[in-house]
Amino acid sequence: MSASSAFIDEKGGSASEPEYGHDPASGGIFSSDYKRHDDLKEMLDSNKDSLKLEAMKRIVAMIARGKNASDLFPAVVKNVACKNIEVKKLVYVYLVRYAEEQQDLALLSISTFQRGLKDPNQLIRASALRVLSSIRVTIIVPIMMLAIKEAASDMSPYVRKTAAHAIPKLHSLDPDQKDQLIEVIEKLLADKTTLVAGSVVMAFEEVCPDRIDLIHKNYRKLCNLLIDVEEWGQVVIINMLTRYARTQFLNPNINESLLEENSEKAFYASDDEEEEDKKDEVAPLAKRKPYVMDPDHRLLLRNTKPLLQSRNAAVVMAVAQLYFHLAPKAEVGIIAKALVRLMRSHSEVQYVVLQNVATMSIKRRGMFEPYLKSFYIRSTDPTQIKILKLEVLTNLANETNISTILREFQTYIKSMDKDFVAASIQAIGRCATNIGEVRDTCLNGLVQLLSNRDELVVAESVVVIKKLLQMQPEQHSDIIKHMAKLIDNIQVPMARASILWLIGEYCEHVPKIAPDVLRNMAKTFTNEEDIVKLQIINLAAKLYLTNSKQTKLLTQYVLNLAKYDQNYDIRDRARFIRQLIVPTDKSGALSKYAKKLFLALKPAPVLESTFKDRDHFQLGSLSHLLNAKAGGYQELPDWPESAPDPSVRNVEIPDWSKCTSRKDRKEKKAEKPFYSDSDGESGPTESADSESDSGSGSESASASDESGSGSESGEETESEEEEEDEEEEKKKKRKKHLDKTKAKKPVEESTESEQSSGSEERKRGRKAVKNQKSASESESESESSESGDESEDESEEESESDTDIRKKKTPVSKQPPKQSKKESKKETQEMSLLDLDDFEPAPASAPVTPVNFMSSSLVSDLEGLSLTDTILAPTTITPSGSIKMYELLHRITGEGLAVEYCFSRQPFSPDPNMVAVQIQFTNNTNSETKNLHIEEPRLQCGMRIREFAEIDVLSAGESVTVVMGIDFCDSTQAANFQLCTHTRKFFASIQPPVGELMTPVFLTENDFKKEQGKLMGMNEISEKLTLGEKCVNEHVIVERVTATANLSRVPCGSDKECRFAGKTVSSGCLVLVTVSTKEGGRAQLTVNCEKMLIGTMLVKDIMQALSQ
Amino acid sequence: MIHSLFLINNAGDLFLEKHWKSVISRSVCDYFFEAREKAVEPDNVPPVIRTPHHYLINIYREKIFFVSVIQTEVPPLFVIEFLHRVAETFQDYFGECSETTIKDNVVIVYELLEEMLDNGFPLATESNILKELIRPPTILRSMVNTITGSSNVGETLPTGQLSTIPWRRAGVKYTNNEAYFDVVEEIDAILDKSGTTVFAEIQGVIEACVKLSGMPDLSLSFMNPRLLDDVSFHPCVRYKRWESERVISFIPPDGNFQLMSYHISAQNLVAIPVYVKQNISFFETGSSGRMDITVGPKQTMGKTVECLVVTVHMPKVVLSANLNATQGTYNYDPVTKILVWDIGKLNPQKLPNLKGSLSLQSGAPKPEENPSLNIDLKIQQLAISGLKVNRLDMYGEKYKPFKGVKYVTKAGKFQVRT
């Protein structure tokens, strides 16, 4: 243990020194100290690394104990270029510690670091910069500046991180460099790696926290990166974003806060006042616009929420304060649980958390009420924790829980910890003032405490009783009498003063006792504390005014005593009172009003929490804890009246010159507007992973850019909870739109397409039910028609091809424009086969890009649809031929009732996490079947079923189709239930093929690659296979794959590869499928999915489909 | 942010200082000493102390005060959490975090502090990265070091710092691949005089010891994940998967770590494993008192209660205790006024009892409150909440790991009011 020996050595050597922190340089230069340093110098000069190391260890041990080792500087600094890495590190430690004192010598080491900055190894570059910037020598400021600038554009994110760390160092060394440093910060803020984000925001906070404008462009990126940033960086970023959001968004509680005020007033005010208030309030409320949350605001709330589960208390607190300051009232509640969890942590953490909970519980009492018991006090808690818990308990007290709380308080009063008992008594007092019903109970309890043996307890009770009595003195003259008796026994000045004040104030209620008390007090006047003396004078004055006959002489006596008191306050008071109450010739007009002055009705005190209004400090901050502004504290701004322009956060299209190939570039440009919707949805949740330095930059840029384009695509980024309503809304919109298209039925439509749709109608009309496929399709297409009203001009060709496909009864869908234009006709045809799926809820607002892609056939489709009004009613939908039907109940076992089902691959609108299952009932009997419904679903854990509405009657020979939703929880477990008719029950079970557990997702090629990159390793399953005979071309492959699994094709440049993307319905995990074909009918299938099981099963299914 | 750090022992000796910015004189600690004196108990020292130019944020751990000096606004929890992380790192490195070990390893401590903070902002706090930078001392290594003169500082620069999974180092290799999980549950409860539960909840942690080669990807699932009300995870856990499937999926750090902590929802009734019958009374005259405590099993799910300890914080006036324990030993410390009765295994047939008299300071008034009893216990092979691990799967590596799950129930803050 060389280190330990060094320490012991040190200790032995310093034994002669009398004091621990003694500075050897001051007196011991010529003593043994000097010699010892001499041998250290010798060791440092030697050639052996081991000796050098030994010496450095001893020196560091000296530094650690705060001893001066500065005289060794020259010897140490020589070793800065030492090969041994530990010696080097210890030299760095020494250098950073003493460079400030020995500036000239420190300069000797600079060249080593400058060399290090050029090292090919990123970690050496970083460490050189770190030490260089830590050397606090003003002369090297320009060198540091240069190094920081260079490092800020280093290839390695780690070096850039170090550069960010160096910024505040330089700033504190030379504040004049601020402007240049801000430039560097601006540059680093644009960095897309998680490694840099935390450090640069920290630099931002230290150098230029007021430059909020630098954040705009990086806001969305920071939100998205947040979850992957290291924990300390998260705290800093969250705190900064809280401030940012306060300046940029509107108060989400603007309407509630008005209501709240209203109700609060109503609570306290008398009835008539209340009515007036209401009149006043109603008007502005009505005028106010409905509040719509900025999607960026929502983004922040959503992306911080998972961090409540962090193991780091500081992160949890940061999120909690963010929610407290920024979230709509209804959502703030979620932080309570996390904060209560922190109470299990170390007592220091508890202390800080309780302080914040105390502040929060005043504003939002309901939030912590369910956790009331978590704040119960244990006798082993430290006193400061006990008192804070009491504070919280008091804040949480209300009419319903007061009895339990008071019962708790009762046990606390018996505690051995007297400070805590005093605080408990105060807490009882506060509960009594706040909650009228228990006032008498509390008062009685407190009066009982007056006979307590402990004087402190009695004293505290007196003070609290005084406050309570002030509220209704008439009913409690016996208590006042009781307290008057106590004055002989109680020694605590505050309590004595309180009793005297009470007697004086209510001397009319105790006319007999009061003069007697004054007489007693006059006797002891000189020995009393100042506050008691003041109250004696006060009592004398009041008695003089009400009962001068009995007390005149006494008063005179007391005033005379006070006149010669040592304390000038008391002398002043005495003089002042004498002038006021004793009428003389000179006495002014005031003495007439003396009685009114002294015996004016005093308002009852309001016992308030010390934590009231502390929330004007940002919670979780040092300033909040101290209830005083700490240095460097940034005020939390008030919400703006009207929101600043949200478009400042939009990021302009990044420079595409970075793109690797021109083709790529072209694609991106073309695709971007097209897919921006779906990107907008996935954008915020995806955490732009950014390990690779090259390339990924531009990618994530586009991602953030795309999610950024949503300034007007409002609701997309809205939270999941709202999704459902949204969808409905969209549906309405869609319908409206349909109607519109119907109405204005473009004249320029080709007759051909009209015909085709007509014939199609007829074909399918045989069943007298509309083809579900076309319905869904048209639905989807109506969405796109929203996006591109100018889509009428579409190539004839395409519509033709479309109709062709129609006849084959293959699903048709819209297709990316780029592809359609670039690729040959044949390819177009294939493409159109792909995405039978665009059932993704349409964005509420259409992407603005003018893309002409809607085929005329599509328009004709719309027309076709419009023939039947009920297109959107789910009951009329039947599966199209291309979808596989499964038997649920055979005609024979079902006694004539045949039931089939299929997976319609439509989104199940009541619940987007469910898979829609279409069930077709056919009644083959000769009689009616009644009351068809589902009973007793027996489901695996987590699975849910949404039943279809009961079918009242199914006449003989008829069939009917209904849709039900099942949340399979992304498993292929069967959902079992009983199918009931009015007479019988049948056991039925639906087991989904794995391919039906997903819905298609639109990805661009780049997004696909990026996502795939994230799902490597064990999330990737790759299998080689030989394609079946019929799988001759891409077309068939696509058909097979999409038939097997509900995926959408990802456009792709290469014709050797087909890519498909989807996500699981229940949890939304991405499922990425790649089929790359090779010579001789061989192919490779790759599935990337976070869910291993789904991936494996999917591989199996697709393999089977492809090799047939 | 964090300007300097001072380590001070319980006696008030300052034995280590470290500055990350310019040096701050140790005289700043005088404010701390003042507060320390005022607080009487070390627990009661306010975590944040204000001085004219600085703020002192301190934690008290293992009889050491970690006092950090702050100059400007910073979230106090940020500093507190960091200081605890420092203490944990010391514990991890030296086996325990005490004054002696810190003094013995002062150079390593200094190197660690240097790496953990840069200019007052945390740099590397993950134990895996630190261990690559600075190897923890082992007896063997220190012997080798003294002979060969090699060092504790890693020659290679850590790659973990640069990766997306900073908690795991690359190239881990074991001959025996094993993964152990300890489900440790603690019952926090307050029982009142009559034995009724005033408040009870279960807090649990899953401690893991994973020694697997390569880059294993583990997923742990429970039979009854719905029991878990509130959870917090090690950063390695994929939060999204937990949200969607209630499966804990993660690439584990190497070695020991805490995978998650959880809280059992309050709706579930908490089984209280033991009951306590007690009668403590102090007589009005004669400055003495009587004590009689019996502990018995209540809801133990058929398991044995072990390591049963009853701790009583006696009132100040109790001078000595003259008791008789039917099982185990008792010890009364007249200085701290703490009575500890170490029972050991609870035998349901013959209930342990502690009975006898207490002598009080003569002349002093009798204490008003009876002291509350703190119970400590341990039940092996039982998670009192009923939580069960369903299975542990490993992906990404070919070998077959050895897996194990252990359950332990302990008493947390378990208090009986009297």
From TrEMBL, chain A:
<dbReference type="Pfam" id="PF24080">
    <property type="entry name" value="AP3B1_C_2"/>
</dbReference>
<feature type="compositionally biased region" description="Low complexity">
    <location>
        <begin position="693"/>
        <end position="712"/>
    </location>
</feature>
<keyword id="KW-0813">Transport</keyword>
<dbReference type="InterPro" id="IPR026740">
    <property type="entry name" value="AP3_beta"/>
</dbReference>
<dbReference type="Pfam" id="PF14796">
    <property type="entry name" value="AP3B1_C"/>
</dbReference>
<dbReference type="InterPro" id="IPR016024">
    <property type="entry name" value="ARM-type_fold"/>
</dbReference>
<comment type="similarity">
    <text>Belongs to the adaptor complexes large subunit family.</text>
</comment>
<dbReference type="GO" id="GO:0006886">
    <property type="term" value="P:intracellular protein transport"/>
</dbReference>
<protein>
    <recommendedName>
        <fullName>AP-3 complex subunit beta</fullName>
    </recommendedName>
</protein>
<feature type="region of interest" description="Disordered">
    <location>
        <begin position="1"/>
        <end position="28"/>
    </location>
</feature>
<dbReference type="GO" id="GO:0005794">
    <property type="term" value="C:Golgi apparatus"/>
</dbReference>
<keyword id="KW-0472">Membrane</keyword>
<dbReference type="InterPro" id="IPR013041">
    <property type="entry name" value="Clathrin_app_Ig-like_sf"/>
</dbReference>
<dbReference type="GO" id="GO:0030123">
    <property type="term" value="C:AP-3 adaptor complex"/>
</dbReference>
<keyword id="KW-0597">Phosphoprotein</keyword>
<dbReference type="GO" id="GO:0030665">
    <property type="term" value="C:clathrin-coated vesicle membrane"/>
</dbReference>
<dbReference type="InterPro" id="IPR011989">
    <property type="entry name" value="ARM-like"/>
</dbReference>
<keyword id="KW-0333">Golgi apparatus</keyword>
<dbReference type="InterPro" id="IPR056314">
    <property type="entry name" value="AP3B1/2_C"/>
</dbReference>
<feature type="compositionally biased region" description="Acidic residues">
    <location>
        <begin position="778"/>
        <end position="802"/>
    </location>
</feature>
<dbReference type="GO" id="GO:0016192">
    <property type="term" value="P:vesicle-mediated transport"/>
</dbReference>
<dbReference type="InterPro" id="IPR002553">
    <property type="entry name" value="Clathrin/coatomer_adapt-like_N"/>
</dbReference>
From TrEMBL, chain B:
<dbReference type="Pfam" id="PF00928">
    <property type="entry name" value="Adap_comp_sub"/>
</dbReference>
<keyword id="KW-0653">Protein transport</keyword>
<dbReference type="GO" id="GO:0005794">
    <property type="term" value="C:Golgi apparatus"/>
</dbReference>
<dbReference type="GO" id="GO:0030131">
    <property type="term" value="C:clathrin adaptor complex"/>
</dbReference>
<keyword id="KW-0968">Cytoplasmic vesicle</keyword>
<dbReference type="Pfam" id="PF01217">
    <property type="entry name" value="Clat_adaptor_s"/>
</dbReference>
<dbReference type="InterPro" id="IPR001392">
    <property type="entry name" value="Clathrin_mu"/>
</dbReference>
<dbReference type="InterPro" id="IPR050431">
    <property type="entry name" value="Adaptor_comp_med_subunit"/>
</dbReference>
<protein>
    <recommendedName>
        <fullName>AP-3 complex subunit mu-1</fullName>
    </recommendedName>
</protein>
<dbReference type="InterPro" id="IPR028565">
    <property type="entry name" value="MHD"/>
</dbReference>
<keyword id="KW-0813">Transport</keyword>
<dbReference type="InterPro" id="IPR036168">
    <property type="entry name" value="AP2_Mu_C_sf"/>
</dbReference>
<comment type="similarity">
    <text>Belongs to the adaptor complexes medium subunit family.</text>
</comment>
<feature type="domain" description="MHD">
    <location>
        <begin position="176"/>
        <end position="417"/>
    </location>
</feature>
<dbReference type="InterPro" id="IPR011012">
    <property type="entry name" value="Longin-like_dom_sf"/>
</dbReference>
<dbReference type="GO" id="GO:0016192">
    <property type="term" value="P:vesicle-mediated transport"/>
</dbReference>
<comment type="function">
    <text>Part of the AP-3 complex, an adaptor-related complex which is not clathrin-associated. The complex is associated with the Golgi region as well as more peripheral structures. It facilitates the budding of vesicles from the Golgi membrane and may be directly involved in trafficking to lysosomes.</text>
</comment>
<dbReference type="GO" id="GO:0030659">
    <property type="term" value="C:cytoplasmic vesicle membrane"/>
</dbReference>
<keyword id="KW-0333">Golgi apparatus</keyword>
<dbReference type="InterPro" id="IPR018240">
    <property type="entry name" value="Clathrin_mu_CS"/>
</dbReference>
<dbReference type="InterPro" id="IPR022775">
    <property type="entry name" value="AP_mu_sigma_su"/>
</dbReference>
<keyword id="KW-0472">Membrane</keyword>
